[in-house]
Design a protein that fits this description.
Layout: E1 12-16, E2 23-25, H1 31-42, E3 47-51, H2 57-68, E4 72-77, E5 80-84, E6 98-99, H3 104-114, E7 121-124, H4 135-143, E8 147-151, E9 154-160, E10 169-171, H5 177-187, E11 193-197, H6 205-212, E12 217-220, E13 223-227, E14 236-238, H7 243-255, E15 261-267, H8 274-282, E16 285-296, E17 300-308, E18 316-317, H9 329-337, E19 342-345, H10 358-368, E20 373-376, E21 379-383, E22 391-394, H11 399-408, E23 416-419, H12 431-438, E24 441-444
Parallel strand pairs: 2-15, 3-14, 6-7, 10-11, 18-19, 22-23
Antiparallel strand pairs: 1-23, 1-24, 3-5, 4-5, 7-9, 8-9, 11-13, 12-13, 15-17, 16-17, 19-21, 20-21
Helix pairs in contact: 1-2, 1-6, 3-5, 4-5, 7-9, 7-11, 9-10, 9-11
Bound molecules: shikimate-3-phosphate (S3P).
Shikimate-3-phosphate is lined by residues 32, 105, 176-178, 181, 202-203, 326-327, 350.
Length: 445
């Protein structure tokens, strides 16, 4: 996308083999929380002050879309944002289609937020986003009375604003925080109590942040309910470092022969940190030191992490564990490739509809580095290798595939060339520089 913020997004990485990972790092702010802080701030009464904001392309797409919807947003510093809340009914029609770039979260949450407005909206995105499934949000929103058209279930998403939605009880067919959030956002505008039930826990940032904005929610087992018509009050949100960005360095520090790595101020919401449990089961040495304050503004737990290298062994991942580390599988499969023995992940069909088909992208990339693996309809089997070869990786324009293979170079015998890496800027601006500071030989070309 217009990323070019710096106008110089690299096309590929060349990563030198080996390296030590050590020191203290703070990775950029959480993407999921930054999107939500902007959106909830936009419909709140009063101002919302966001610190630790992720100035990545995905969140900038959300900010630009809100500006098109009439919301005044100031960014006095790269990671500091002030949203002048327009109030519940304060959004206004955009003059043109809203471009979500590469951001699936933005498109799905905006669909829930814009369905109950008094005006029509059209949502589009980049080539990857235009291929991603939107029916999963359209189905429950249509049950609420929303009028939404897609192209065979894919974007563009054309929304005919319908101010009088009905509350529903909706049981999600798959654990998806994006679908859950879209229904809850629409539920804020619906008459009655909206209830969402999840088949397994998914990230709960929307629920926590709605609470921080003064919305009353009720939790019962796997259900969350809220009454429509509640107003949000602007607040201060301190966004912690993104666990999903920290994940690349957690795995790197497990694999490299180095003393230890510290990652500071990391969001450790338990619906996000499944990777820690998986890696510990493989033999990793990861220490979690909760921060004294305990919680950031926005009701998110924060900790410093210390990782020491250790030999890893393969494991089998249970289907119920998948949603708790859904975005970490690319780098998890790199850990599996460097472990002794076999690793099996099943029940992970969702990985096929992320920014790329992540099962296929990882299978192809691991094969290119000499790692035996088998692509399954809903997962991947990997046999750990003594060492990886060098090679060329097609990241398929997927930020997390690109960063995962940069980590793989720690165990490679020759350079790894990673193609199509511009989208790393969607979630981790400055990744190459941060990785170099940590000890990875990443060169951005
Ligand atoms: C996200 C939810 C997850 C995750 C995505 C961010 C969110 O998607 O993969 O990167 O911020 O709600 P699903 O809801 O499709 O599982």
């Amino acid at each position: 996308m217009s990323a070019g913020a710096a106008g110089s997004a690299p096309a590929r990485y060349r990563v030198q083999p080996g390296g030590r990972i050590a020191g203290t790092l703070t990775v950029p702010g959480d993407k999921s929380i930054s999107h939500r802080a902007l959106m909830l701030g936009a419909i709140a009464d009063g101002d919302t002050h966001i610190t630790g904001f992720l100035a990545g392309e995905d969140c900038l797409s959300t900010a630009r879309a809100l500006a098109q919807l009439g919301v005044r947003i100031e960014r006095p510093r790269e990671t500091e944002v002030r949203v002048h809340g327009a109030g519940a009914g304060g959004l206004t029609a955009a003059a043109a289609a809203l471009d979500m770039g590469n951001a699936g979260t933005a498109m799905r949450l905006f669909t829930g937020l814009l369905a109950p407005q008094k005006f029509n909206s059209t949502l589009v995105g980049d080539a990857s986003l235009m291929r991603r499934p939107m029916q999963r949000v359209v189905v429950p929103l249509a049950m609420m009375g929303a009028q939404i058209r897609t192209h065979d279930g894919r974007p563009p998403v054309e929304i005919r604003g319908t101010p009088h939605l009905r509350a529903i009880h909706y049981s999600l067919p798959v654990a998806s925080a994006q679908v859950k959030s879209a229904v809850l956002l629409a539920g804020l505008y619906a008459a009655g109590r909206t209830r969402v039930t999840e088949p397994a826990p998914s990230r709960d940032h929307t629920e926590r942040m709605l609470g921080a904005f003064g919305v009353h929610l009720e939790h019962e087992g796997r259900s969350i309910a809220l009454d429509g018509g509640q107003r949000l009050k602007g607040t201060a949100i301190a966004v912690p470092a993104d666990f999903s960005s920290a994940a690349f360095f957690i795995v790197a520090a497990c694999l490299a022969a180095s003393p230890s790595l510290e990652l500071t101020n990391v969001g450790v919401n338990p619906t996000r940190t499944g990777l820690i449990e998986l890696l510990r089961r493989m033999g990793a040495d990861i220490r979690v030191r909760p921060r004294a304050a305990g919680h950031s503004g926005g009701a998110e737990p924060v900790a410093d992490l210390e990782i020491r290298p250790s030999p890893l062994h393969g494991i089998t991942v249970a289907e119920a564990e998948v949603p708790l580390s859904i975005d970490e599988f690319p780098v998890f499969f790199v850990a599996a490739a460097c472990a002794t023995g076999e690793t099996l992940v099943r029940g992970a069909l969702e990985l096929r509809v992320k920014e790329s088909d992540r099962l296929a992208a990882m299978a192809q990339g691991l094969s290119a580095l000499g790692v035996e693996n088998q692509l399954l309809p809903d997962g991947l089997w990997v046999r750990g290798a003594e060492g990886l070869t060098g090679g060329t990786i097609d990241s398929r324009g997927d930020h997390r595939i690109a960063m995962a293979f940069a980590v793989a170079a720690l165990r490679a015998s020759a350079p790894i060339e990673i193609l199509d890496v511009a989208n790393v800027a969607t979630s981790f601006p400055g990744f190459a520089e941060t990785a170099r500071a940590a000890g990875l030989g990443v060169e951005a070309l």
